[in-house]
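TA notes. Do not distribute before section.
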Amino acid sequence: MNDVYHERPDWQKALEHHEELCDERHKGIQNQFQSIDKRLDNIEKLLRFTIGAIIVMPPILIVSLTLILRVML
């Protein structure tokens, strides 16, 4: 009976150590995810700006050129 009680604290220590390691790994993974999330947000902003410019610029150029040509002719 005493052997069982002696084994349990070792088992608990091993489990606590395992949980501490997992917590450290989890924090590292969370930090990496946050870093990736920030980079993806920046990429998303850049894409939105680029797509907006692609959609908006041609009509602005067409209107500008037609006005310039009307003034010149």
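Switch to the second chain here.
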Amino acid sequence: MTASTVTPVLPLLKEGDSGDAVRFLEQLLVSIWWFSRDRYNLIHTEVSFDAKYDSITTQAVREFQENYNRSFPSPDIIVDGIVGEQTWQALGDAIFRATY
């Protein structure tokens, strides 16, 4: 039997979206806020766990995108308040850096 690689598909998220993927994003943002506040200070906005991608979530994502670009060298991620492939990768990188 050979091993196979499974690549999870993370959805494009933007203001107006809701559901489990948004709740997962909120958990990541809060974790990054908590673990990076003394070292990188990537997020200033408090995000609630309501599974709704609202204007507060958009603001937190923009802050993260801007501060990630400022804190870490290339590649820069697009600052648009939308969570696409680049931002998902940056979120994973940030939580790794903040917790290890």
